[in-house]
Specification:
Elements lengths: L6 H23 L3 H7 L1 H8 L8 E3 L4 E3 L1
Antiparallel strand pairs: 1-2
């Protein structure tokens, strides 16, 4: 490639950005950490186009990570 962005790359970037924005809105609207971990798992995997991922949340009261 000569450094130019192809239409396909641009389309993929726009698709990712739209899916990511929607996912972030759903995460912020989630009623509990469990609803993020369980309810949004498949959407997170789809946005990043992966089969598996580890999701970490911060428990601010206990000052620790939860996965």
């Amino acid at each position: 490639m000569d450094g130019k962005t192809t239409r396909s790359q641009t389309d993929k970037q726009h698709t990712f950005e739209a899916l990511f924005k929607k996912l972030m809105n759903e995460i912020h609207a989630a009623s509990s950490p469990n609803s993020i971990m369980v309810g949004l798992r498949n959407k997170i995997l789809k946005v990043y186009d992966v089969e598996m991922a580890t999701i970490f949340l911060v428990d601010a009261k206990k000052n620790q990570l939860v996965s």
